[in-house]
Amino acid sequence: MKDLTIVRTVADLRREVAAFRTAGRTIGLVPTMGALHEGHISLVRGALGHSDVPVTSIFVNPTQFGPNEDFGAYPRDEAGDLAKLEEAGCRLVFAPGKDEMYPDPQLTTVHVSEITEGLCSPLRPGHFDGVATVVTKLLMMAMPERGYFGEKDYQQLQVIRRMVRDLAMPIEIVGMPTVREPDGLAMSSRNRYLGTAERATARALHRQLSAVAETVRDGQSSCTAAASAAAKALLSAGFDVVEYLTVVDAESLHPLERVTGPARVVAATRLGRTRLIDNIAVD
Ligand code: PAF
Which of 35, 54, 133, 137 has the CB geometry, 3.0–4.6 Å to 189, for a possible disulfide? Predict the structure, then answer.
């Protein structure tokens, strides 16, 4: 790896970051759990676009997975990830082990209230505490000027924005647009779990979210009616479960009945053993 440095300890990360800073560069942190795809790479490009030195972390964070979730099966491909990152222009990768991230039993958890109460939370209790805590640690370790996160995990993005604001962290959170396959499916590390027939069915998700966004954007149509028609259409198309499909305020994530300002159609579904989430702005 010619231009890419890989570090595995917090001390080495801080030393490398300090060297960039001494050279007058700003740091853009791209936190990931690896199994990188074009969506992640777009975050690295986002950092380069702001003239930040892109620093990517790769850590499959156990504390954000529930006991029956896919922590063990979560795809891991460090060699492939490093090749993609180098090609994209990433300069530094922080790939710690579990003992480096959690050397002591954690007595401290970062909890963001309200916006973590609906949508994904009821079915993934503790998930956002795990995310908020590990992201806080990563931000404190790298001390970037900016942190880059995908809009695909929209609730996560709002939780992180709010956490950074509430805790007055001197870091700008940059949300980057979802990168999609040609048929509209949002790129996700979990898409590789989909079988061929499931992959063909999966494209219906983006189509239905777009239909809801189109229906409710006039502010006259009922969000509940449009969302429930879309959920039914997904089940008819072959989805096994629609955990939620709803129109929410873009910032507070409160469910809306009519769109009167910035809003988002958000959904979580299950197709076979794969959980697919997606969202789309109501323009
Ligand atoms: O979005 C992810 O991949 C993870 O939730 C994150 C932000 C890297 C924290 O582990």
Answer: 35
